[in-house]
């Protein structure tokens, strides 16, 4: 709900308020973001300092919290936007001009954003116009709130209202001002095969931190999700603010702690390498930034965003649809396969109850290794004499759906496409472009390149009965030919994704970028699941999946059981533990099932049965993190159904220890008045004891030991009395 009381604008979610006021001199000021307040008029108090007397209006903007500040007038903190006008300066003081309120969620031109059209969505959007006629610039800020969430989705459009060009040098989507308080910053850096490693640091006066990526996509090395938490906040308690960018390009979340201890947090496109020329009358749209508030710790933020993304971001037809359990041939064969080998894997997988076979890299062009063939999207008939049509029919006869891997944004120099169109690769004129993984990036800012990709992939997807696509992107972006190129590239990516997903609504698309290099809210708009990391080792995945779950739903976390010793790090783990970790995500396999002994194969059959039983809970349940692998020798989590009737619990003791007692684990989110039965062991438990005393897992005496429970509420009195 959005209300206006004189100069107070009040946005309310389920149990939070976001309050904006128009100051006496027309400045748009921030008053409150937090627990819900009553509807009435509010005024931002002005804090005076030693140089206030020199400001034309008697106070400095630096001393008041603002909604969309600029640097250089009477505010010398980092600004939400910067530009150079025809006079050669970037000084502006945009004042409130007008507002309007509309039903439904805001849209962002050319980019993904939260879904929610019309009154039935429970969404309202506030649009506020600001302008500075002397500077020749104006902004329209959009704020979307939903009556069932504690979030505010913000975006901004900058417009040139002068008669000469303006050069934008930065445009952030949101600004959050927080008053002085001891707070920590929680963010998620990493690297290839080691994504979203949770870090926490204190924010001190005078500190400026840029949580950023400038490698071409949202990135392995830094995720566009950040939390600012009060000092003692934890999983279950404490005030936490989060910012999530619905964007898949270079990003920045700039945190500035002023000398008085107050925080200004800006989130948006990374200014590094950014520039955008606005001709008179032209506009620039910034991506959407989602601000979330919780007074129930990190877990409160995670569950809020998970519900929001499932219901109002991911493709509606796929978000809550059961995902098939798949097997991917990559680690079984790499490039060395033929049609019969693939069908053999599919046949054995079908015997285990697996539902989808995915053919990975190596099926097209002269693609016998990663040095050639990218861009040539025609079937390699030496490997697949029946083509995609014949192969998909053979796979279907084995009772499995058929899917395949593509990497449409890339080209190898050793390819027919590159030989025909070398200028289609991203490059700086006169300079040899840098290869990475023996490949270059196609320039999808160009219409003809996008048209080629769209037609080529459409031809592939209509060549057989294809029901799943894994969309990969395996290198960082270098040699960007001009400032602002990365943003234009990202817009081109969205155009391709929009066209292909709309043209094939029945295909399940999974995102991938060298694993988890583009795991962001922008890609979730098109792809309801994303390959979480190329590192599939169960122990490494404890941290990767734990960190990912902080800002994204587990229903988007693609998690597979792979071979042991693991192909990325050589670690040996049991089949039991590999599955236990993968159950908390979109479950699948990536190994040569034809080489497994009978005992392992029977174990896989039982895992598949259990995963099928579990997947409605993964799609609809709430995740509670109980023990952190970043802070202990243990990792524990549980998934709880909305009615608390059903609970999946997993705990892993990473290293076996001598002379140490394992800790009790208190479960969360359950009904303390209920009795539960573990359908895996037959043991029964009282909810109040699990919640308040805890549960002691019975680990095996070895490294990487895991325990799994599947609890169901006991509903008959006789069963309860029999305890």
Describe the overall structure:
With 723 residues, the protein is an alpha+beta fold. Strands 6, 7, 8, 9, 11, 12, 14, 15, 19 and 20 form a ten-stranded antiparallel sheet that branches. β3 (16-22) and β4 (28-35) form a beta hairpin. Residues 717-723 have low confidence and may be disordered.
Structural descriptors:
723 residues; eight-stranded parallel beta barrel; disordered C terminus; alpha+beta
Number of helices: 14
Average pLDDT rating: 96
Helicity level = 10-25%
> What is the gyration radius calculated from CA atoms?
27 Å
The structure class reads: alpha+beta
Which of globular, elongated, flat, extended, rod-shaped describes the shape?
globular
The largest sheet, given as strand count, sense and whether it forms a barrel, is: 10 strands, antiparallel
Write down how many β-strands occur, each being a DSSP E stretch of 2 or more residues.
36
Question: What proportion strand?
Answer: 25-35%
Q: Write down the oligomeric state.
A: single chain
CA(first)-CA(last) distance: 49 Å
Q: Uncertain spans, ≥5 residues at pLDDT below 50? A: 717-723
